[in-house]
Amino acid sequence: xxxxxxxxxxxxxxxxxxxxLASGFSLIFGLMRIVNLSHGAYFMLGAYVxxxxxxxxxxFWVAILIGGLAISVLGAIIERFILRRLSGxxxxxxxxxxxxxxxxxxACVWIWTxxxxxxxxxxxxxGAFRVQQLAFPIYxxxxxxxxxxxxxxxxxxxxxSRLGAMIRAGVDDLSMARAMGIRTSLLFPVVxxxxxxxxxxxGVLAGPILSVYPxxxxxxxxxxxxxxxxxxxxxLLGAFIGSLIIGFIYSYGQALFPDLAYVILFLPMVLxxxxxxxxxxxxxxx
Amino acid sequence: xxxxxxxxxxxxxxxxxxxxAMPWLVTSDYYVNIATQIVIAAIxxxxxxxxxxxxxxxxxxxxxxxxxAAYLTVYLTAHAxxxxxxxxxxxxxxxxxxxxxxxxxxxxxxxxxxxxITLALGQILWGIAYRWxxxxxxxxxxxxxxxxxxxxxxxxxxxAFFYFAxxxxxxxxxxxxxxxxxxLGQSLQGARDQPRRMRALGYNVWLIQWLSFVFAGFWGxxxxxxxxxxxxxxxxxxxxxxxSAETLLMVIAGGTGTLFGPIVGAALVVILxxxxxxxxxxxxxxxxxxxxxxxxxxxxGLVPGTRRLRGIVRKRRGSPTTPALPVxxxxxx
Amino acid sequence: xxRIATLFSTTFLMGWALVTASEAAEPLKVGFMTVRSGALAxxxxxxxxxxxxxxxxxxxxxxxxxIQIITADTAGQPAVTKTKxxxxxxxxxxxxxxxxxxxxxxxAIDDYIRQTKTPIISPSAAxxxxxxxxxxxxxxxxxxxxxxxxxxxxxxxxxxxxxxxxAIVADDFAFGHEIAAGFQRTFEQNGGKVIQKLWSxxxxxxxxxxxxxxxPNADAVFAAFAGGNGIKFLGEYKNYGMQKPILGAxxxxxEGILKRMGDEALGVISAGWYSAAxxxxxxKKFVEAVRKSYGADPGxxxxxxxMACQFLNNALEQVKGDISDKAAFMKAxxxxxxxxxxxxxxxxxxxxxxxxxxxxxxxxRKDGKLQxxxxxxxxxxxxxxxxxxxxxxxSPVYSRDWxxxx
Lengths: 286, 333, 406
Fold this sequence. Notes:
Chain B is an all-alpha fold and 333 residues long.
């Protein structure tokens, strides 16, 4: 009984982390059709920047903002000077992000020496929340809360705002959206910055659980891909549900089938893609 | 189109002559071994190029064939009592069958979906190699493979092994170029550029792509067999995502859809990783920067790119460039 | 005829003497394989620091010969490691190797080392079989084997901490398997029982799912992690409301990561052949030097590379700097005997593995810094613990599926 509850909570918390990681990826992928292979690197770099900010004496909350801001600036530069020059060549864009991921990963080893580092948790969220026999980390409950808030905010942004309407139009049919007079040249940088900011801030937020180390990028990138594939392209709901499903598969799967620990996240993805190439919630094949 | 222009043939002959003369040009076995690694990487990159360059199918899981063939070669010859030839043949056959299965799964999707399925399948293989320690040795990998003595030639000799690998490279170049010029290869390129028209003309695009996928997997397996005999061991690193990414990088850097591009790309990556890293600590960053630069400024890759640059210098004007990276994105309606 | 023969042999001897003389004047080339890029770069950097300290301490000279270090970055990839070994030996003419970092790298070049007959000193790779079932005549190790420190820890947990039931959580790779099995063997021999073994992937994203599975009946948890995983595990442990005491492997609370930890590490009891807090003059001097140069306490990798270099020095002194006779040099290397070192006294067994004092260590805070305070020392512990080597080597190497023979 306890097992199902606590691993359920674990799955929910890990799924929440995945959503924070994957939401930005999904936004960029959905609108710009760029598989941003440097998303994991953004996530790691954001965590490192946040860590340095904390070292410099700012609070955890400010560090999240700084991490997000720094990566959104980086994203803006990359979008403006690299991706835009390659517009209309999705494959070249994908490949260029792969190269950027190499550069960022090595730069992080250079600057932050490659020591694995914990990101200190804010004192007020440390410790366990107890109900009778159960104990669960307060910080993870907080992460679950953040993910749900983020999902609601993004949903509101996409469904209820003018920007959101433009993004949705672009996701559905880019050329039609252009024909309708939506200036994608403005829309793309905004979305790319937003997606990058989410990765950077997400890295700091996940830091107390994942810590920061060289290789965090390649550990996390496939997870973001899995979530987005499972959920379906350009579907925020899909990314959200996909994250939670993957979270549950991860926590129950690791416990129940330890021999499959390494592959447990990729089997469902292959299964879904071969049976339903659009993902669970996507309208388009990818 | 492939190797029909005269400069490319000349370039090719020069490259082949240089490769043949390699062991006399260098002073140390070390460089012969580097050359051997380039040859093996080139075969792998050429096989991926069948998919990327001619088929427009970008795979991020091509290390699968290298790794599986290498594991099987080491396992069968060193731990299951197979002879060197029987072990190699069995490894290549089994890996090709795996490519049939993976091709069936991956070709359910196209474009980015294809990329992601190949990536996921690759990750699964890596996970198996890592976890199934009783068979694969886990992170320690498998060792103990002994290089064979075909026709009495001792392949422990670096120069002998270099020529041994070179034979396979020559075979790969010949057979892959034949494949590209064959009806199947032509229809593969047709399917890359005009999939809908090809379908309308009655071609079975899926079958064409699947056969090409298996063909690419076969050559990946050859590279894996050579890799196993060259290194005499195999580890999960062989199956890792970074190996797939590096192979893709070789293809893109050298030039997709050309015969020599992957060889140049393989040389670039192998030399950066093994030789330049002795002088430049941040070689990984350099690799990234070179890659980004190539994609941005020489999208056709180094081989066609330098030719174009030469052309620009000579004629003082740019020639019209075709997008060399296949633009396969079909936005479904 | 006879005169000609004499003439020949005299000329030959003179020539040989000349060669030896010129060799003694030339610097000795030492190839050093480390990791500067990728996930293992932190350990690689600490190795470089340890080696540099040792070279500086000898002012770049050993037994009257200049030492030239040639560094190579293996990127933590076995295939690259092999190429780098070839680069160092064939191109750069390295006569001795120090390195590489990871066990899988050391295994990848094992055959090559045998072929080229190159003496190699391992500063960190702990895989048991390198000095056990597959001993390489050209290999000596300057650190313990995976299980060497954890045999004593198992006994200590049963006999002195009086734990009856222990749950093991360990990295799912050879190093973790060997540590866990070594611990289990002696713990159960002394009346304890390992009631659960959880293997987490080396790249496990987080440990909540594993911490939640720990059997409530366990008296304590033995957490065997490498790299940065100890940080993640310990950071989460208390937040799950866990009260059970933690035993750690040497690398779970290694000084290299302990400096980054906080209160969560306090009280962890571990075992190792080294602690920066060992209170001997030799170690104090060493720790002082590391702090001065690099601002941190030395741990596994720093001291491993430092000692590998001291081994080299000790062997070179035995052969008076002349390594033209490789067999003689190798004999000297296996005969290394250092009475005072950061480890304490060090001698090698016949397999090329040091016999080491094993410290049982407890994480405490002193002067605002965490350290591994030594609470007990098992002197002169062999890689075979108290078992007979022949008996020990008959059973297969420790693995994930290893179970104690009843």
